Amino acid sequence: ACSSKYVLSQMHPMWQGPLAVPGGDRQSPIDITVRKSVFDSELKPLVTNYDPNTCQQIWNNGYSFLVEYDDTTDKSTLKGGPLKDSFRLCQFHFHWGECNAWGSEHTVDRRLYPAELHLVHWNSDKYSLFEEAVMEDNGLAVIGVFLKVGKRHEGLQKLVDALPAIRHKGSVVEFNRFDPACLLPINTDDYWTYHGSLTTPPLTESVSWIIMKQHIEVSHDQLAVFRSLLFTSAEEEAQKSMVNNFRVQQALCGRTVRSSFT
Ligand SMILES: COc1ccc(N2C[C@H](O)c3cc(S(N)(=O)=O)sc3S2(=O)=O)cc1
Ligand SMILES: [Zn+2]
Questions:
Q1: What's the half-sphere exposure (Cβ side, CA atoms, 13 Å) at 45?
Q2: ipTM for the complex?
Q3: For 56-65, how does the pLDDT look when each residue is reduced to its tens digit (9 = 90+)?
Q4: Is 200 in the pocket of ligand 1 (CB under 6 A)?
Q5: Which of 13, 36, 65, 120 has a CA that sits 20 to 30 A from residue 227's CA?
């Protein structure tokens, strides 16, 4: 799939029809084969500085639900890790399955998780707008965190309680003072990192992926509320449950996945 000009057509609930991505040799998501990852002692700990007051709204974009942050100043930033520059948080969202057996986009030694959190940041040292950065080689940095079903996640509940108000595609509600740091695992020093792409259209190959080794736990009931969202807008006849909003895994095409831990 790497040499071919186009990625295989992604006949997937999230979008129909073939998706042409020029080149297509650094697509995401991927399976992380632990024994093939390469320890890199140059990789630093992640440095996140998130200001909960920059949280603005939560909305259903028809792929997932996004919590959006004011990224007009450097108030919520990500530095360190594999990154040379400072990146600004613009949104976070999740991917999940119709059941707890699957739902994550990345896998570790083929292990699937019921859901995966993505915290999306753009390179504010090199670019002045998200829209510019998203098209550039080192424009975005996305932190991926696996979710496992277990004890209730207290910090997540505020977000879960807001979901019924955005059931339909296109609905938006104000959402303030949410600190995304509460969704990070205790240990953020251990991660894998590789160069990849957005996992939804436009699939641009502009992402430095940082996948946390440690997962977070959420309750079965909290995840069930994710599945009560809809892909469809209020006007559409057939309502489709927003589930399985993950992309099929892509070929590694010779890329190396580095680890910050041995
Ligand atoms: C060019 O116009 C745009 C480009 C990208 C986007 N985004 C929305 C996407 O759904 C999306 C999916 C991401 S994932 N699953 O982390 O790879 S990150 C991301 S986004 O916030 O960049 C919006 C407009
Ligand atoms: Zn995502």
A1: 7
A2: 0.96
A3: 999 999 999 9
A4: yes
A5: 120
Q: Ion ligand 2 — residues with CB under 5 Å?
A: 118
- Identify which ligand lies nearest to the alpha carbon of 250: 1
The pLDDT tens digits of the residues spanning 27-55 come to 999 999 999 999 999 999 999 999 999 99
Helix (H, G, I), strand (E, B) or coil at 27: coil
Residue 147, token pair as written in the block = 């979710």
d(CA 215, CA 56): 26
- The ligand 1 atom nearest the CA atom of 90: 21
For the beta carbon of residue 7, count every other beta carbon within 10 angstroms. 22
> Does residue 91 line the site of ligand 1, with CB under 6 A?
yes
For residue 262, the CA-to-ligand 1 centroid distance in Å is 32
Q: In whole angstroms, what is the distance from residue 68 CA to residue 92 CA?
A: 7
